[in-house]
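Technical note accompanying the year-one report. For the benefit of new consortium partners, we illustrate the data format agreed upon in the data management plan: each record pairs a sequence with a structure-token string. No post-processing was applied to the example shown here.
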Amino acid sequence: MTLIKSISGIRGTIGGKVGYNLTPVDTVKFASAYGTFLKNNSDKKQLTVVIGRDARISGPMIHNLVVHTLVGLGINVIDLGLSTTPTVEVAVPLEKADGGIILTASHNPKQWNALKLLNNKGEFLNGEEGAKILEIAEKDAYVFADVDSLGVVTPKSDYMDIHIDEVLKLKLVDVEVVKKKNFKVVVDAVNSSGGIVIPALLKKMGVEVVELYCDPNGHFPHNPEPLKEHLGDICELVRKEKADFGIVVDPDVDRLAFITNEGEMFGEEYTLVAVADYVLSKTPGNTVSNLSSSRALRDITEQRGGKYEASAVGEVNVVELMKKTNAVLGGEGNGGIIYPEIHYGRDALVGIALFLTYLAQQDKTVSELRAGYPQYYMSKNKIELTPRLNVDLILEQIAFNYSNQKVTTIDGVKIDFPTSWAHLRKSNTEPIIRIYTEASTQEEADNLAMRMMEELRVIAGM
């Protein structure tokens, strides 16, 4: 059981001992620290925070604790209830709120939950801001409001519909051209809030929807990370239904993966590639993804006359570099699409609407579309950490061992070989080292990953 305190928020498993897991006490502590941080950095007499949650089983408990902790600090709360991460990000600026919290552990299994923290732009806090919140929590440096100064809770349950409308307003989303194609799509929303919002979006675009695991009861029918080994059911159903393609989202709907019309993985790395291909064809410019993302985005961007750059892993890092390079699109290779025309956050709804428009205009099957992109193959692996390991020293040794290659150390160690690469880094959300590799064949990518994992084990004495 685990509690991870990082600059990107607080994430942990439910139950267990205070300070070691995401218990009610820890939840109140870090909600208090966040609210205090907002108050310390504002001259306003009355602050407002937007709150939303995914459908996981612990959601109502964590939600009530967070909402009423903020009320106790004298902060007003706009309560979206069951929602998505990008919906909360959209709502914060629309409501002119001072911040937002999404209660979700994203792709983690059901025993996890988390507090994801936003600023007044609906964007994730940066490292310096996150560090200040951790400091406040360590010192218990918060003062609560008296009885006449408590915050007020305002429920607003229609924000997923508002979010859909905002997506459909985008210049590059063409609902009419999509409607003419009469697409049939299978949706796997892992029994979370995507089971409400994704079918609603598709139906507004004239798409016939076949629902799979769209009951938002929080009982995930499979591991909620949208990887090939977890998605056998939707692949089979796409073939059975003779659907045009399948859509998979994670519990908080910021990651997006597609299944081809043949019931095969489109590849979550290629979600961003396909959407970028469309966006760049209409609005040429630069793109950004993180160091663990496919080279295919670089290839597509350069073919379209733009410049590609890579950031450290983490949405806040991608967004920072996007702003610096004035990128027209960015994201992460885990199926996260960031389109600044609507907001600076990963958004599956935006990705779906842009992909549908592009597919309708191309007059190709999803399999044909995928076959037209540069062919790279990735291997994604991980090694669990033990407390005795000095991970930084281990990664330093890896970097030294490959100093004759192009090595990047802004986030772990990335080694660029002529026709492949390997990226090794500590996870921000789990006690593991992630090992991502990419090459021109799956065998080469897998072999490179196995080599790197063995080297890690030898250096660590595992």
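Partners are asked to follow this layout when depositing records. DSSP finds 15 helices and 20 strands in the chain.
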